[in-house]
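Example 265.
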Amino acid sequence: MRRDSVGLPVPGPLPVASLARGDVSWAQDMARFQIPSGYSRIHIVTSFEELVATPLVAGTNALCWPRELPGDFGEVVKALGPGAGIEDLDDARIAKLKLSAAGRRAAELLLEDQRRLRDLHLDPVLNAIHEYRRDEGPGPVSTDVFSFHVDSAPVETDTWLCSYFGAPTEGLRNDQARRHVDLPKTRAALLERFGGEDAGEFSEYLREHHFDLHYAAEPNAEPFSFGLGNLWRVAVQWPGCPVPAFIHRAPAMVPGQPPRLLLIS
Ligand SMILES: [Fe+2]
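Predicted structure in complex with fe (ii) ion:
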């Protein structure tokens, strides 16, 4: 069981102010993915087969298969109708939607991606995300999906992701991030909350509350978008994982906007 509950060109260095979670225009403007300049941990592949077969080793902690998908995913979202929270969309519901040819093409792609992952004995979920639960009263470290984090699992696994509609998932270079628990002020605040010594039990406390999975962007950081339609496979933190886990977050949600369509496994 994972401990986690939970893309357009980046136009040059991102102003620090844009890192604030309230700035949604940046996320909305991003629809394509470009590898961050001078960054070697993300590898581009040209087929599904290559995405599956390429190991996450030797520093590479993310694989991206860029795609420009045909079809009208917005029509699918419209046909789904109103909803709330995070909806799991089963195949039967997608197959039964009344759609034009363009909407049907999009629906078929949604089903096809899941079939491909199931053929790998994975367990993909297609979500319509109207809103995520926010970390209420997070204290020194927010641990919701809007915070940069790595996924974690007790056994070897990877996270597969595709944003089809709405604001895409966002990534952060490992060399532009620091764990919140390694920031002296934050660590001190967490230690005060814990009420003990900075020793083994404190480490366990940080782990139990997922504080150790969350990251702060460096002041000069340039978060990037996963892009729409691209299928990603990214490294998860598991015992023995040979590469640093991939840091990512959910984009800010815009009240009143249609839900995101996201595939995750
Ligand atoms: Fe995640």
